[in-house]
Design a protein that fits this description.
This protein has 23 helices and 35 strands. It has 724 residues and is of the alpha/beta class. The protein starts with 14 loop residues before the first helix and ends in a 5-residue tail after the last helix. The protein folds into 3 domains: 76 residues, no CATH class; 421 residues, 3-Layer(aba) Sandwich (Rossmann fold), CATH 3.40.50; 115 residues, ANL, C-terminal domain (GMP Synthetase, Chain A, domain 3, 2-Layer Sandwich), CATH 3.30.300.30. Helices cover 31% and strands 23% of the residues.
């Protein structure tokens, strides 16, 4: 992160200062003249000054150092959380929430209602104190169709701390994605896509009618497999138009999707197949990413998968020999050649039925198997509707995978809100993806901070026009202020909406908002329908709206959130030992959050023994198990620590090593050990994991009960993170 102190105030900047950044003399004079005009009208250090500079002076083509000079110069003495973007009153009235409040604000808030911007905080409070009214309204706004309507929105029951949502309701989220409603017609584009390597070809499109036909065909073919309704069927393939069709077809036909990331090693695939009891799996023979062909079907075989339906890679030139009993994609579809044009009447399901099994690492080493119910997709869609203002005409891109919650989230947040999703089948790290964002005219681009860091480092987005973007979104990791500023500058300072949530929630619990000023790397509000608490050192909730830092807890009544786990006790994981508020037991989340004096929130990583690497939550124990096996002759034990870098951003993975030798490993080549750790972790866990540093320590700090105090190690390593 930039050091504010080294920047001059805007009224002290000279033409020579701008020229020193590599700007031509002529342009430097023009920029300085424009800067002087802005400062003369708005002052040298006000939010309005920055607003004018970001809209009238800065462009994506200029050096980022100029953007930094202007931003940090403007806010040199402002204090914490200066606004980097501010809502425009007229534009706000066109947002989903703005339109709703303009129509019904007085109904919801009475005489307290002023306008969408001034009344947004009151509306958030209304959304949690009147859950019935809020969620009834949200479902109506998204045109959710029930075959059997719910008896009520929320029924509080002593046996379920999170309550029972939409009791008695029957509906099918996949059917809702495909249904005609006031937001779309059959000829509307719902998916735009392109394969890596085809970057000069036109963007391909799928209409709603074409998506319906494709999903119905696969749903009919699924029934030929002879599986019992409700059976689990896995998907392990890149997120492209075909995998989206398969995902929707599985749910439409009353089966349950098992989400497996295409980056997983065979052991991780096998674990997830066994936990979910998957009866079949959809996969590809291989896939192309970052200029490399990567195997997939062979990993499925090594994992000992059940019957597989194997889709040929679009760029595959050879036919892969299948195991006995496995089915090629062509043969699978041929089974229903005569009925593929017939509508598949989706199975209506009770609201508590499972639709998707996803996985999130815990502290036991085995991933938690988290079922999404029929209700969860509508929580995902509601986040898109409220926090990101996704609506008809939008094109939504988020490089992700069906193995992670953001894959299903993208499907529901776009389709249930009448928007299109944009899918790039390849690496998001290069210029091909940047060009796709331009060519697809993406209006909402979601990222994880690690991707932004790569874009900024390589400058691969240069020369591409991202002006269609209305907002960015980021989740998965803590973001870095400079990288957020750089990202905003690619699209003429459209806002970055920070979101934090969880697989077990189906969306976010805290976010930014297009109805509030946004600050870099900060959250501005609890998500609509969600109540937040920061726990003090005594374990009790701090008073609301009081600055503080501590472990974050959630109000128990969260629409769409999990109420069961396949391989753990849900109550023990999320509620046991938690404090109560107004008689309600709070829900554990596990992140440390800070609430600032200006009402913003900052994330400070995990409070427990899990960490976030590249947007993937993983337990320390999983990593340590791999590292301990590298050299059991010399290594006594290891501790895996996620260390936040100075200035914020994604955690760096640091491995603390205790050696058996009395010299404490001083004769050991720690860099070679780091390379060995990397190779093993990338092979056995995830190719995206990377060890930043190996540190030799004499012993690991432990509690009286012999538990490793990783939090203490994290604090120690954070103090020296600038040298890691």
């Amino acid at each position: 992160m930039a050091d504010h102190r080294k920047y001059k105030g805007l009224d002290k900047i000279t033409v020579a200062d701008i020229e020193a950044l590599g700007v031509s003399s002529e342009l430097s004079c023009q920029l300085h003249e424009k800067l002087a005009e802005i400062v003369s009208v708005y002052g040298a250090a006000t939010p309005q000054t920055w607003l004018r500079i970001s809209s009238d002076l800065l462009t994506p083509e200029q050096p980022f150092s100029l953007h930094q000079m202007m931003y940090y110069g403007c806010y040199k003495d402002f204090g914490p959380d200066p606004p980097v973007w501010m809502p425009d009153p007229e534009s706000v009235k066109l947002t989903n929430i703005g339109k709703l409040l303009e129509r019904r604000g007085k109904e919801f808030l009475g005489s307290k209602y002023k306008d969408p911007i001034l009344s947004f905080s009151d509306f958030q409070k209304f959304s949690v104190s009147n859950l019935e009214a809020f969620w009834k309204t949200a479902l109506e706004e998204m045109n959710v169709s029930f075959s059997v309507p719910p008896q009520c929105i929320l029924r509080e029951t002593p046996s379920q701390p999170g309550g029972q949502w939409l009791p008695g309701a029957y509906l099918n989220p996949a059917k809702n994605c495909l249904t005609l409603n006031g937001k779309r017609s059959l000829n509307d584009t719902v998916i735009l896509y392109r394969d890596e390597g085809d970057d000069e070809t036109p963007v391909k499109r799928l209409t709603l009618k074409e998506l319906q036909s494709a999903v119905w065909t696969v749903a009919h073919a699924l029934d030929t497999l002879g599986l019992e309704k409700g059976s689990a069927i896995a998907i392990d393939m890149p997120m492209d138009s075909t995998s989206v069709v398969i995902y929707l077809a599985i749910i439409l036909a009353d089966y349950v999707v098992v989400s497996i990331a295409d980056s997983f090693a065979p052991k991780e695939i096998s674990t997830r197949l066994k936990i979910s009891k998957a009866k079949a799996i959809f996969t590809q023979d291989s896939f192309f990413r970052g200029g490399k062909r990567l195997p997939l079907y062979s990993k499925i075989i090594d994992a000992g998968s059940p019957i597989a339906v194997v889709i040929p890679s679009r760029s595959s030139r050879s036919t892969v020999k299948l195991r006995d009993g496995d089915i090629s994609w062509h043969e699978f579809l041929e089974r229903v050649e005569k009925s593929k044009e017939f509508e598949y009447v989706g199975m209506e399901q009770p609201v508590e039925a499972f639709t998707n099994i996803l996985f999130s690492s815990g502290t036991t080493g085995e991933p938690k198997a988290i079922p999404w119910t029929v209700a969860t997709p509508f929580k995902a869609a509601a986040d898109g509707w409220s926090s990101l203002d996704i609506r008809k005409g939008d094109v939504v891109a988020w490089p992700t995978n069906l193995g992670w919650m953001m894959g299903p989230w993208l499907i529901y947040a776009s389709l249930l809100n009448g928007a299109s999703m944009a899918l790039y089948n390849g690496s998001p790290l290069g210029s091909g993806f940047a060009k796709f964002i331009q060519d697809a005219k993406v209006t909402m681009l979601g990222v994880i901070p690690s991707i932004v860091r790569t874009w900024k480092t390589t400058n691969c987005t240069a020369s591409y026009d991202w002006s269609a973007i209305r907002c960015f979104a980021t989740t998965g990791e803590a973001s870095n202020m400079d990288e957020c500023l750089w990202l905003m500058g690619r699209a003429k300072y459209k806002p970055v909406i920070e979101i934090c949530g969880g697989t077990e929630i189906g969306g976010g619990f805290i976010s930014g908002s297009l109805l509030q000023p946004q600050s870099l790397s900060a959250f501005s509000t609890a998500s609509l329908g969600c109540r937040l608490f920061i726990l003090g050192e005594d374990g009790r909730p701090l008073p609301s709206n009081v600055p503080g830092i501590g472990e974050l807890a959630l109000g128990p009544f969260m629409f769409g959130a999990s109420s069961s786990l396949l391989n753990a006790d849900h109550y023990d994981v999320y509620f046991k030992g938690m404090p109560a508020w107004n008689g309600q037991v709070l829900r554990r989340h596990g992140d440390v959050f800070e609430r600032t004096s200006k009402g913003y929130y900052h994330a400070h990583g995990r409070a427990d023994d899990t960490m976030n690497l590249g947007g993937v939550k993983v337990s320390s124990i999983e990593i340590e198990r791999v590292c301990n096996s590298i050299d059991d002759v010399n290594i006594l034990e290891t501790a895996a620590i996620g260390v936040p870098p100075r200035g914020g951003g994604p955690d760096m993975l640091v491995i603390a090593v205790v050696f058996k030798d009395s010299d404490g490993g001083s004769s050991y080549d720690l860099n070679s050990l780091r390379i060995s750790f990397n190779l093993a972790l990338q092979k056995k866990l995830n190719p995206l994991f990377k060890v930043s540093k190996v540190v030799a320590v004499p012993t690991l700090p432990r509690t009286a009960t012999n538990k490793v105090m990783r939090r203490l190690l994290r604090q120690q390593f954070s103090q020296i993170s600038s040298n890691l």
